[in-house]
Amino acid sequence: MLKNISKFKVELGILIPIFIFFIISVISIFSTKDLLSEEFSNLYLKQIVWYLVGITLAYMSMILGNKFLYNNAYIFYIIGVLSLILVLFFGITVNNATCWFKIPFLGTLQPSEFMKIFLIIVLARMINDFNENNKYPSASDEFKFIIKVLIIIAIPSFLTFIEPDTGAVIMYLIISFVMLFIGGIRARWFIISISLFIIFLGIFLGIYYFNQDLFIDIFGTSFFYRMDRITNWSSSSGFQLNNSMIAIGSSGILGHGINQTPIYFPEMQTDFIFAVFASNTGFMGAMFLIIVIIFFDFTLIGYASRTTNDADKYAIGGIIGVLIFQQIYNISMTIGLLPIMGITLPFISYGGSSLLSYMLLLGMIFNISNESLRWTNKN
Predict the structure, then answer these.
(1) Of 12, 62, 218, 226, which sees the most CB atoms within 10 A?
(2) DSSP 246-293
């Protein structure tokens, strides 16, 4: 059935940026080893392993094909939800968050990262099925469909929120919003949703600012401290942000040099990897990375505009939406423009879960250009 697997092609517009991301990632993680404890001194070697595993998973995704993924979307979704439940009971706790399974020799695995993939796959299936079965949907049809989508989103969002991992929950919502928008859902539902969100946010912030005891009674102490961290970001008084900005600001045009990160700041190998790279390579290196990221994103947008398969179009929309959000948010928070949250820089930050999830998604994207080849000799 798959006689033309050997003819798989990989677009250079994606492959070259990924190779550049790999080099930047390994060099940047290597440049943190002297400032981290000894147990983290080999993270750059682990990142190489994760990249090799990721390439293998991307190839497996290409062999299976997107149709296989969509046909089994609900199975993947159930697996993702079960993993989020299990991590609450059997996961390890780091910085008061229980988000990871311990993997011998490699480190940890974060189910919420893979839940992004499962949400993209299941929503692409749901939106495509709805549009195929409802050529001229009524407002009632759309309302029922949106309720179903909200349930699908709410379950993993709740489980992820109580880990807690607020950043992942935001990414789930962005994926859903972008995919529904591309799916052609009427604008009225977005207007209603945004209006309700603004009302809820006003009530939420009102309780937080004017009755903090009630806020703690409703949402708990842990969430209160998370909110306190977010709302105080603009003061730029935190140790992590201060040191990140010192490292970037002192780098000049060409930077301090590879493995010459001048100062320590927490999570420098993950959430703040951009600050490490910028401090090592200066303004020129940081701008080069940003240009490569923009080129990569526009290449993916080109894929979305060319594909004639609706399910693929919805899936790419979700992938692009979450990628751009993470890129903008991560870089912005390292320079004090946005609150600090646990949001990594895709393909650059250390972390097997994030890297593997995006490599699987890249496999889906590669499938689009290979779909005609896949079935050429089917008969």
Answers:
(1) 62
(2) HHHHTSTTT-S-TT---S--TTTTTTTHHHHHHHHHHHHHHHHHHHHH
